[in-house]
Amino acid sequence: MLTLYSFGPGANSLKPLLALYEKGLEFTPRFVDPTKFEHHEEWFKKINPRGQVPALDHDGHVITESTVICEYLEDAFPDAPRLRPTDPVQIAEMRVWTKWVDEYFCWCVSTIGWERGIGPMARALSDEEFEEKVKRIPIPEQQAKWRSARAGFPKEVLDEEMRKIRVSIDRLEKRLSESTWLAGEDYTLADICNFAIANGMEKGFDDIVNTTATPNLVAWIERINARPACIEMFAKSKSEFAARKPFAKSEEQAQA
């Protein structure tokens, strides 16, 4: 039996969620509500002591880390539709992209997302409420990130993260001008893992992701959104973005 604990179809939670739908595997989705800080509740920390989603429970064995879960599904269910190539060279190409999104692309987009989305949520809490929430976060670095979001990230940090986002967008656009999919001619985990971060950027970062500046990237995002598994995932999944748009710009940014 498979149970996936996640924030729904966005960011890192989207990776294994879409992989499960693409592979046609039966599973029980368990939505963990970040607006209620459920991932820091004791019941969830018994599942993942780090208090982070996604987490996959497969017959009592818990697998964490989004890309690791995706690879695990490939190994545990080899007869399901494949999302990983069989050729060693192509596997390496795929993993270059999944490693890059985890170590570079995800982090710069995440910081801007925290500034725009998590910051207002954190500032809406009283000092006492905020400290109570932070106290339950098991990872010191995450505690620091919440404090930074509440205070507002320094301008030089945001400027550097936007520079990295532009580097990321240029890399994706260049690759997709050469190939239909990131790791070659086949749709793989490389696409799923990068789509998890890139999807929605044509709305939240429309000045740099649009049909004029990045036609190949936008077409790739549209291709994945049009896949039956992706349509089904969004139709059936509860989302953390129910009350707010992903990568929503602040009023000041929208008017800039």
Automatic annotation (TrEMBL):
Q: What is the annotated signal peptide range for this record?
A: none
UniProt cross-references to InterPro entries, sorted A to Z: Glutathione-S-Trfase_C-like, Glutathione-S-Trfase_C_sf, Glutathione_S-Trfase, Glutathione_S-Trfase_N, GST_C, Thioredoxin-like_sf
- The GST C-terminal domain extends over 87-247
> Where is each GST N-terminal domain found?
1-81
Pfam family for this entry, one: GST_C
UniProt similarity note: Belongs to the GST superfamily.
In Swiss-Prot or TrEMBL terms, this protein is called Glutathione S-transferase family protein
